[in-house]
């Protein structure tokens, strides 16, 4: 057996030992490298640089989530319905949806919808079930119960666009979201009747109206004062015929800071575009909770599902999923009180 003099140890070592150590280092390095490579290989498909940025911001948001936000916003309007909570989910369950006839006759007995809209809504919902993510019976029922014609602006109803497959302007630069996207985001939330759900961006009020047939605990925040007031008045007006809207707690304020008094929430839906997860919202999400939001730069977002997990040692991890498989969308910007869009917070690195 040849012996090799190894200067470091100041003695000679059998060549076989040197070979064993050397190959151990090579194999170890390769194996060590292969772990991150494996992780990369198993992570989600990355469609673009914007998506990479959006995804990395998830980590940034997570780091920030440990921080406290001292600049909690005040608010001047708030509508909290009484403690008698109308049971929208129970009503939805009692509604027959097996045939159009059964549904029609139930709706005309129990509600005041004009038949022309019932006709449209039924066909539209059937179409959504076939073409979109809308599959869960609870969600289908919520879509069948929510009168979209009341949440679309009058001029668009005149044009017959209330059940059109598109987003529509609702004034103040805001929009009522495309039904396909509403169905995708609602499906992702997987709302249970006992969930407490927070929406950021009340807008027309349509999304929260849908939620009021899935749970009795809905909270929604809007930042544009006249829009907040309009939608608040609309809900009050509709409550007589659609009592489930009375469970929607409304607030005029900046949704970036969530709604501390009622936190934590089981589900959070953000309906305005942002390039990072607002840390206060992440903090206000229950462990096991789901947040869905349009994440990305102003011109292009990805609809992300974020699930917050709390490990046994108390640490928080997030899992994420692009629910639209890399397809991008464009939402109204998530803005602050003076109208500036929020952008990713700067992470300070310790010196
Ligand atoms: N969910 C709405 C969609 C409205 S569009 C619907 O179903 O109609 C997005 C809304 O987010 C706009 O009304 C906009 O004013 C609101 N918004 C933007 N920034 C916000 C913020 N910081 N807090 C609360 N709402 C905000």
Structural notes for this entry:
The protein is of the alpha/beta class and 351 residues long. It folds into two domains: 3-43; 87-322, 3-Layer(aba) Sandwich (Rossmann fold), CATH 3.40.50. It is 37% helix and 20% strand. It contains eleven helices and 13 strands. Strands 3, 6, 7, 8, 9, 10, 11, 12 and 13 form a nine-stranded mixed β-sheet that branches. Mean pLDDT is 83; it is low at 4-11, 30-53 and 62-75. The structure holds S-adenosyl-L-homocysteine (SAH).
Alpha-carbon distance between the two ends = 53 Å
CATH topology of the largest domain: Rossmann fold
* Estimated share of beta-strand residues: 15-25%
Tell me, briefly, the overall form: globular
Secondary-structure element order, as H and E? EEHHEHHHHHEEHEHEHEEHEEEE
Number of distinct beta strands: 13
- Overall tally of domains: 2
- Poorly predicted regions are 4-11, 30-53, 62-75
Task: Count helical runs.
Answer: 11
Radius of gyration: 26 Å
Q: Could you name the CATH homologous superfamily of the largest domain?
A: Vaccinia Virus protein VP39
CATH architecture of the largest domain: 3-Layer(aba) Sandwich
How confident overall, as mean pLDDT?
A: 83
Structural class: alpha/beta
């Amino acid at each position: 057996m040849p012996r090799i003099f190894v200067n470091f140890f100041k003695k000679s070592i059998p060549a076989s030992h040197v070979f064993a150590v050397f190959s151990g280092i090579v194999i170890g390095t390769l194996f060590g490298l292969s772990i991150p490579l494996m992780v990369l290989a198993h992570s989600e498909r990355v469609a673009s640089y914007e998506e990479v940025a959006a995804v990395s911001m998830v980590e940034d948001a997570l780091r920030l989530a440990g921080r406290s936000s001292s600049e909690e916003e005040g608010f001047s309007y708030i509508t909290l319905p009484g403690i008698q909570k109308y049971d929208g989910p129970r009503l939805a369950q009692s509604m027959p949806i097996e045939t159009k006839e059964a549904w029609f006759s139930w709706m005309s007995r129990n509600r005041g919808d004009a038949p022309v809209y019932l006709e449209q809504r039924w066909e539209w919902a059937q179409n959504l079930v076939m073409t979109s993510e809308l599959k869960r019976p609870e969600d289908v029922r919520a879509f069948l119960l929510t009168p979209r014609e009341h949440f679309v602006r009058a001029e668009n109803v005149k044009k017959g666009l209330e059940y059109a497959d598109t987003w529509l302007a609702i004034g103040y630069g805001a929009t009522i979201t495309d039904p396909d996207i509403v169905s995708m985001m609602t499906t992702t939330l997987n709302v249970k009747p006992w969930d407490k759900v927070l929406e950021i961006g009340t807008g027309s009020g349509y999304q929260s109206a849908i939620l009021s047939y899935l749970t009795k605990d809905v909270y929604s925040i809007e930042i544009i004062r006249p829009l907040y007031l309009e939608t608040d008045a609309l809900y009050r007006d509709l409550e007589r015929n659609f009592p489930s809207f009375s469970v929607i707690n409304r607030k005029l304020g900046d949704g970036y800071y969530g709604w501390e008094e009622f936190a934590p929430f089981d589900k959070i839906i953000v309906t305005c575009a942002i390039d990072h997860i607002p840390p206060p919202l992440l903090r206000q999400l229950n462990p096991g909770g789901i947040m869905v939001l349009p994440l990305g730069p102003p011109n292009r977002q990805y609809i992300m599902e974020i699930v917050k997990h709390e490990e046994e040692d108390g640490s928080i991890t997030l899992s994420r999923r692009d629910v639209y498989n890399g397809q991008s969308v464009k939402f109204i910007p998530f803005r602050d009180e003076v109208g500036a869009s929020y952008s990713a917070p700067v992470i300070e690195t310790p010196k």
